[in-house]
Amino acid sequence: MEKQEKWMLLAGMLAVWLWAIPGRAAVPSGQIQGQVVEAKSRAPLAEASVWVAGTGVGALSDAQGRFVFKVLGSGPHTLQATYIGYQPVRIEGITLDIQGLAEEVVEPSEKPISLSEISVTPGRLAINCTEPAASQALTREELQSIP
C-alpha cells in the first residue's frame, strides 16, 4: 500500500472507532447554562455572581436570573454562586452531555446578615476639637420666618 492509502485507512478506522463508542471522545468545548432562583419562592435572583471554579470564567445573572458560560472540556466542572443575604452555593461534578451542554438550577437559601448594634445618642459631633463649637438658639417664630 502507498503511504497516502495507509493514512486514509488509519483515519477511517479512527473515525469509526470514535463513532461506535459514544462518550469516549471528549467534548472539546460546550456551555453551562442555567438560572439562579431563590430556594423557597423560586423567584429569579438578578445579578447573582456565578462562576466556573478554577477557570476565571464568571458573570452576573441577568434580570431573569439566567447565565451562560462557554467552557472547555466535558468536565467535570464546579459551578459556584453567591448573592448578598444568601448562602453561597457550590455544585460539583457538572459534565456536558453529548451535545456539549449542561443545564443547572442554582438555589441559594436566605442567610441573614448579622450586624452589630448602633447606638445613637444626642449631643454634638466633636472631631479633633478642643474648644466648644459656637451655638445659636432660634425661637419658633424665627424658624417659621425663614423662607
Radius of gyration: 31 Å
| Helix content bin | 10-25%
Structural class: alpha+beta
The number of helical elements comes to 2
CATH superfamily of the domain at 26-106: Carboxypeptidase-like, regulatory domain
**If classified by CATH, what would the architecture of the domain at 26-106 be?**
Sandwich
Q: Write the H/E string, N to C.
A: HEEEEEEEH
The first-level CATH class name of the domain at 26-106: Mainly Beta
DSSP strand (E) fraction?
25-35%
The geometry reads as elongated
Largest sheet: 4 strands, antiparallel
Which strands sit side by side, in order, in the main sheet?
3-2-5-6
* Uncertain runs: none
| Mean pLDDT figure | 79
Could you characterize what this model shows?
Strand 5 and strand 6 form a beta hairpin. The chain is built from two helices and seven strands. The strands form two sheets. It has a four-stranded antiparallel beta sheet, with no helix packed on it. A three-stranded mixed beta sheet has the order 4-1-7, with no helix packed on it. It has a domain of 81 residues: Immunoglobulin-like, CATH 2.60.40. It is an alpha+beta fold and 147 residues long.
Please describe the topology of this protein.
Blueprint: H1 3-20, E1 29-36, E2 49-52, E3 57-60, E4 66-72, E5 77-82, E6 89-94, E7 101-106, H2 140-145
Parallel strand pairs: 1-7
Antiparallel strand pairs: 1-4, 2-3, 2-5, 5-6
